[in-house]
Amino acid sequence: MPINSSGQGFSENTLTKQDHFRYFVDVHLGICKGIFDTYQNNFWLSHKYYYIDLNAGPGITEEYGEGSPVIFLQEATKRQVQTRCHFVDVNETVIEALKKNISIFPCQAEYFPYDNHLAIKKISETLYQYHKKGNKKLYGLLYSDENGTVPFDELTEVFSQKHLQTLDILIYFSATTVKRCLKSFGSDKYKRLTDYIYKLPKKHWQIRQAQSDDKQQWSFLFGTNWENKQGKMGYPEVKQLKFYDLSSQKGQSILESLAYTNKEKQEMMQPKIPGLDI
Ligand SMILES: C[S@@+](CC[C@H](N)C(=O)[O-])C[C@H]1O[C@@H](n2cnc3c(N)ncnc32)[C@H](O)[C@@H]1O
């Protein structure tokens, strides 16, 4: 994947990614806004939307235009949702550019110009302080949009904490990279996609189908604990963008195609003949 001079990866899939991110974030903001309005006099929830961008970028790039922080703030402003943002980027110059590019938006923002593996723990501590004041539930979204590997282990550790139970997760990732890392460096360091999802403490997941011609198999994963009275995911399936609930047949088949190589799938389908170890 080409990477521009300030470190943002982009490809022919990037514009679709940004469109899907915009659509998804808009639906998510709309649902949270509905909850905030319904319970406007209740003290058990914070009426602010918490947004954590683990790979913020500068907000605007020459190569693909608006980046995730700008898209998020545009949609939050349209929906009149009060936000508290946490922007992380390992590149300090990028963070300085971001500050300028979002200065027109009314938002409370904190910036973390260092590695997101460390920043995520710091952000979790900050969010704990907000939660502690009045034991409030925190609603919002964490977005991970890595050029390389997703910090799944750190996400698992941090999201095991009670105060992050109501904060949802959206991950944009290359399934091919996840498989390559497992194959090249082994299971001491890397896991299979199914194991990462299983370990991350969110009860319900949606997965987006990758483009059939995309060798990198770029996809989205969305995780939430929100469920309806039937114990199913409370969040609507965004089928028009090819997001499917992982508990559905379609979701399972997408997961299988992203978690296993064709060779592995063929091997799993081969009938095993007792005594013949081939
Ligand atoms: C694919 S770009 C995403 C940009 C942004 N989400 C957007 O929509 O424009 C990835 C960004 O992550 C940053 N980055 C890479 N590794 C990182 C790390 N370990 N911690 C924090 N940021 C990182 C890069 O500097 C780059 O800006």
Short description:
The protein is of the alpha/beta class. It is built from nine helices and ten strands. It has helices at residues 14-38, 68-78, 92-101, 116-132, 152-159, 175-185, 193-199, 249-259, 262-269; strands spanning 45-53, 60-61, 65-66, 83-88, 108-112, 137-145, 167-174, 204-208, 218-224, 243-245.
Structure description:
The protein is globular. It has one domain: 3-Layer(aba) Sandwich (Rossmann fold), CATH 3.40.50. It is built from nine helices and ten strands. The strands form two sheets. The protein has an eight-stranded mixed sheet, with helices on both faces. It has a two-stranded antiparallel sheet with strand order 2-3. The mean pLDDT is 92. The protein starts with 13 loop residues before the first helix and ends in a 9-residue tail after the last helix. Helix 1 (14-38) packs parallel to helix 2 (68-78). 39% of the residues lie in helices and 20% in strands. The chain has 278 residues and is of the alpha/beta class. Bound molecules: S-adenosylmethionine. S-adenosylmethionine is lined by residues 7-9, 55-57, 67-68, 88-91, 94, 115-116, 145, 147. InterPro entries: Tcm_partner (IPR031009).
CATH class: Alpha Beta
Straight-line N-to-C gap: 37 Å
Main sheet summary: 8 strands, mixed
Shape: globular
Ligand inventory reads: S-adenosylmethionine
Number of beta strands: 10
InterPro entries: Tcm_partner
Organism: Pseudanabaena biceps PCC 7429
Protein name: Three-Cys-motif partner protein TcmP
